[in-house]
Amino acid sequence: ASTHSQRQNLYWGQLVLRKDEAGLEYLEWKSDLGAGETTGESTPYLFARPDNPDNCPVQVYKKYAEKRPGDMLHDYDPLYLSPKRMYSMWDQVWYSRKSLTRNKIEQMLKVI
Fold first, then answer.
1. Which of 12, 60, 89, 111 is most buried by its number of CB atoms within 10 A?
2. Considering the entire predicted model, what is its pTM?
3. Which residues touch 94 (CB under 8 Å, ≥6 apart)?
4. DSSP state of 100
5. Mean pLDDT per 10-residue run, the chain (112 residues)?
6. Contact between residue 9 and residue 78 where contact means Cβ atoms under 8 Å apart
7. What is the H or E stretch that residue 19 is in?
8. Spatial distance between the Cα atoms of 27 and 44, rounded to a whole number of angstroms
9. What DSSP string describes 28-97?
10. Distance between CA atoms of 42 and 10, rounded to whole angstroms?
11. According to the model, what pLDDT value does residue 39 have?
12. Beta strands 81-83; 15-19: pairing state
C-alpha cells in the first residue's frame, strides 16, 4: 500500500521553470524525477502570459516558490504544502513544511 501512495506524491522538482529561445518563460512538467532532460512531445508545458500577469501560471509559480520555506525547494520536497494557520500577506513564508494531504486537496477542490 505504501508503494501505491508514494506514486501519488507530487514533488517540487517535477515542475521546472525554463525559458525558450526567445526568452519566454514556461513551466515544464516532469513525470519522472529520475529521468534526465525531457524532450518528448508529450511533455506538458505552461507558458507565461506577459500580457496578463494576473492570470500567468509562471508568476503564480514564482510567488509560490517565494512564499515556501527556503528549505522546501528541493526536487523531492512535496509540491503541495499546507498553508500556515496564521499569516499575513506581508509574511516572508505562507506555507508550513508539512505536505498537503490528498483529503485536504479534495476538500479544497469541492469549494473552488
1. 12
2. 0.79
3. 67, 68, 83, 84, 87
4. P
5. 54 95 95 69 86 94 96 96 88 93 83 79
6. yes
7. strand 15-19
8. 8
9. EE-S-TTS-----TT--EEE--TT-GGG-HHHHHHHHHHHS-GGG-STTSBSSEEEPSS--TTSS--EEE
10. 18
11. 57
12. unpaired
- pLDDT, residue 100, reads 87
Q: What length does the chain have?
A: 112
Confidence at residue 105, expressed as pLDDT on a 0 to 100 scale: 82
Strand-pair partners of 78: 11
Which grid cell is 38?
Answer: 525531457
Q: Which residue has the cell 494557520?
A: 85
Structural domain containing residue 87: 2-111
Distance CA 73, CA 12 (A): 7
Write down the pLDDT at residue 101.
82
Distance, in Å, from the CA atom of 41 to the CA atom of 6, rounded to the nearest integer, reads: 26
Q: Which helix (H) or strand (E) holds 106?
A: helix 102-111
Q: Which pairing describes strands 95-99 and 25-29: parallel, antiparallel, or unpaired?
A: unpaired
**CA angle (36, 50, 45) in 5-degree steps:** 25
